[in-house]
Fold this sequence. Notes:
The structure is a single chain. The protein is of the alpha+beta class. It has one domain. 21% of the residues lie in helices and 14% in strands. The protein has helices spanning 2-13, 56-68, 103-114, 124-129, 182-185; strands at 71-73, 81-83, 86-87, 95-100, 131-136, 139-141, 150-151, 176-180.
Amino acid sequence: MRYIVCLAAALALAIPAVASALPRLTANPANKLLSRGIDPIHYDAATKCNGGNIPAGTKAMLAWLERNAAGVNWGEYRCEMWGKHEASLHSAGRAIDWHPATMNDGYELVKLLLAPDEDGNVAALARRMGVQGLIFDCQSWFGGWDGQMGHYSYCYGKDDKKKHKLDPTQAHMNHVHIELNLRGAAKKTTFWDKGVTYDTPTPAPPLAGSDHGTSSGGAWG
């Protein structure tokens, strides 16, 4: 409940966002980095609260969002333990809650991050930035190799049907939750550090029905 109240207060105090234009999928920034290989998909869980330290990569990711995505920041750090050795990524300062100016802005941000690059590498920009997880509008991605958003557990019952009377904040209907892995938080990925390279793989064949990253079905199409 405290988290919801804090987010609502942040929204009330936020300065209206200046409209920004995300790069088009055909101009995906990841396409400029093909010669340096592609970062692996890797998920790093959080185990404790770090006292409020915001890593350099989180700050860099937020600065990129503020330059390129229409919306406002709802916050990075909060201490939230789920068990003895399990915590929210916010507890490690490796998560950003980004409130998009419109729902469409949120969809476009997620699609850009998960789009394949010109060589067919799925979630290319997310991987290069060190993004390991996304939640928006009852959909989530936590490093799946298909690069597709799936049902977010809070919003769906055991019968896989969407629940009623969902809290819009817990369902992430009003913000995009962005998580960084350890390399992303340390700015040790190909997007943030020119010294980081990987072996260049043989380009993968285009995904069926894709147009440089447009996903099919619902609002993600």
